[in-house]
Specification:
Elements lengths: L2 E3 L2 E3 L2 E2 L8 H4 L4 E2 L6 H21 L11 H15 L12 E5 L4 H13 L3 E4 L10 H9 L5 E6 L2 E3 L2 H4 L10 E3 L2 H14 L4 E6 L20 E2 L4 H12 L9
Parallel strand pairs: 3-4, 5-6, 5-7, 7-10, 10-11
Antiparallel strand pairs: 1-2, 8-9
């Protein structure tokens, strides 16, 4: 029943019947638990597993741990890198020329950005302007976003929101409301931070057109300084970040 691999115990258990077993597994014994099984068959299988384990432990008094306490964090970090890297653009890809633009309802802010990017030789990819397709919006976002190597996120006061605890406090209600960015903007901001890293994401903040209420920043980003569209220095900061990300920019006009 047991198959040896160095000093470790392997107990092959078939839970789903495949069309064809892999060659290496087909050459060994396995326990077939695929399909309906009676309580007696399950008990028999459990007994065989227990017996195989007992024989192994009898012949190997101090079996090697599958993963030691020292190896565990190293292995976990390696797996995380592989998962993240599986969809990352290859370093041998051509020089980037386009950026994914995340935006809300503020068309004026979007227009400012779209006017600036071509002036430095960068194309703006705006999801709402991509060709129509039968895909759902989420599928469309994923198919385009997975190819992105840099993202620009426009935060603008498009929505109102409040903590329920504050809103339901006596005599508070609507006074608890604050300006918020659209939910899709916050979701996509987090997506690109996780996928591309902070160094390949640039956040542009469009101040509200009213002094009150305040703009509620994402709590995890409290203290992070965003570039404001009202300050022309955002263009210089964005160009510097694009250059660091491998973009070859046109000289200022």
């Amino acid at each position: 029943m047991a198959a040896a691999a160095s000093d470790r115990l392997i107990l092959p258990v078939l839970l789903h019947q495949p069309l064809e077993l892999p060659g290496a597994l087909a050459e060994r014994q396995w326990m077939d638990l695929s399909g309906p099984r009676t309580p007696k068959q399950i008990k028999t299988a459990a007994t065989r597993i227990a017996e195989a384990t007992e024989r192994y432990l009898r012949t190997t008094p101090q079996p090697r741990a599958a993963v030691s306490s020292v190896e565990a964090p190293i292995l976990a970090a390696d797996i995380a890198r592989q998962v993240r890297g599986s969809g990352e653009p290859a370093t041998t890809q051509a020089q980037p020329t386009s950026v994914f633009v995340v935006h809300g309802h503020n068309t004026e802010a979007l227009a400012k950005l779209e006017k600036y990017l071509p002036s430095v030789g960068v194309n703006a990819i705006v999801l709402s302007r991509q060709d129509e397709s039968p895909q759902s919006l989420f599928q469309k976002f994923m198919s385009v976003a997975m190819q992105a190597r840099f993202a620009i996120v426009l935060l603008s006061a498009d929505d109102y929101g409040a903590s329920r605890r504050q809103y339901e406090t006596v005599n508070v209600a609507e006074r608890a409301l604050q300006f918020r960015a659209r939910q899709n903007v916050i979701l996509e901001l987090g997506f690109f931070y996780g996928r591309l890293g902070w160094e390949n994401v640039f956040v542009l903040y469009q101040e509200p057109d009213h002094v009150f209420p305040n703009f509620e920043r994402p709590s995890d980003l409290d203290g992070v300084i965003f570039d404001a569209l009202s300050n022309v220095v955002w263009q210089r900061n964005l160009s510097a970040k694009l250059s660091a990300a491998g973009f070859k920019l046109l000289p200022p006009a």
